[in-house]
């Protein structure tokens, strides 16, 4: 554990999981406010004052408030000491490579494809049905992930050599694609199985998905 103590709002989603996993890797102490999406808990006046976007996750560190799972993960690696073997970029090229993975995974895989499916396949009562857009999103996801598949280690390593927040992001994206029944190259599944064996992954499951453990599932 480090001396760093933060408040993290949100559990139950892939995006909140990223923050809990990163915090567990770094040994950051979190005061978790276990609000969930679509329960009304992001709609309260009190939460609107914390994050006017009314999304989770949100981080509070003293008076500093930060939203966006990618930004929160990066912030934690900058304000906390990192354990040996945890990649933090030194120099422009290493930073650029990390940024490339973060941007690609957030935009091409998460926002353009998975979140579209989330809204229009799994929450049509809120966002409307859009079967053609969903079909196209699956196709888009498959093409994009196929384009990087040979740069993803096949179950024996991490994207940037040492483990990094890019692995947190990519693993949560593969987890989500599996939940959504999207066919994936075998090496992506092997990669995910390898990264998910980290103890911090399991620790974050306990925080983010307490109901799974209540149901007797293992992380
Ligand atoms: N780009 C944001 C997306 C956050 C997001 O969409 N969160 C969803 C849960 S996955 C949410 O807060 N929904 C609010 C609600 O439905 O009440 C991030 O990565 O943090």
Tell me briefly what this model is.
The protein is α+β, with helices and mostly antiparallel strands and 219 residues long.
Structural account:
The chain is globular. It has about 220 residues and is α+β, with helices and mostly antiparallel strands. It has 10 helices and 4 strands; from the N terminus they run βαβαββαααααααα. α1 runs parallel beside α3 and α4 packs antiparallel against α6. The chain folds into 2 domains: about 80 residues, Glutaredoxin (3-Layer(aba) Sandwich); about 110 residues, Glutathione S-transferase Yfyf (Class Pi), Chain A, domain 2 (Up-down Bundle), CATH 1.20.1050. α1 links the parallel β1 and β2. The site of glutathione (GSH) has 10 residues, from loops. Glutathione (GSH) binds next to loops.
List keywords for this structure.
single chain; 219 residues; alpha+beta; Glutaredoxin; Glutathione S-transferase Yfyf (Class Pi), Chain A, domain 2; 4-stranded mixed β-sheet; 10 helices; globular; binds glutathione
């Amino acid at each position: 554990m480090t001396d760093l103590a933060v408040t993290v709002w949100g559990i139950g989603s892939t995006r909140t999981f990223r923050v809990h996993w990163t915090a567990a890797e770094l040994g950051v102490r979190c005061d978790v406010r276990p609000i969930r999406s679509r329960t009304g808990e992001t709609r309260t006046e009190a939460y609107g004052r914390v994050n006017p976007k009314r999304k989770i996750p949100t981080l509070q560190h003293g008076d500093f408030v930060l939203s966006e799972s990618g930004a929160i993960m990066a912030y934690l690696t900058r304000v906390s000491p990192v354990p040996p073997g945890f990649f933090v970029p030194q120099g422009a090229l290493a930073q650029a490579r990390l940024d490339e993975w973060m941007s690609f995974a957030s935009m091409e895989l998460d926002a353009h494809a998975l979140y579209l499916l989330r809204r229009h396949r799994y929450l049509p009562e809120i966002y409307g049905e859009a079967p053609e857009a969903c079909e196209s999103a699956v196709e888009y996801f498959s093409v994009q992930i196929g384009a990087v598949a040979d740069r993803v280690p096949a179950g024996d390593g991490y994207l940037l050599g040492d483990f990094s927040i890019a692995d947190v992001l990519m693993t949560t994206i593969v987890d989500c694609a599996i939940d959504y029944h999207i066919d994936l190259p075998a090496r992506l599944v092997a990669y995910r199985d390898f990264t998910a064996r980290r103890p911090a992954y399991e620790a974050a499951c306990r925080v983010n998905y307490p109901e799974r453990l209540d149901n007797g599932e293992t992380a």
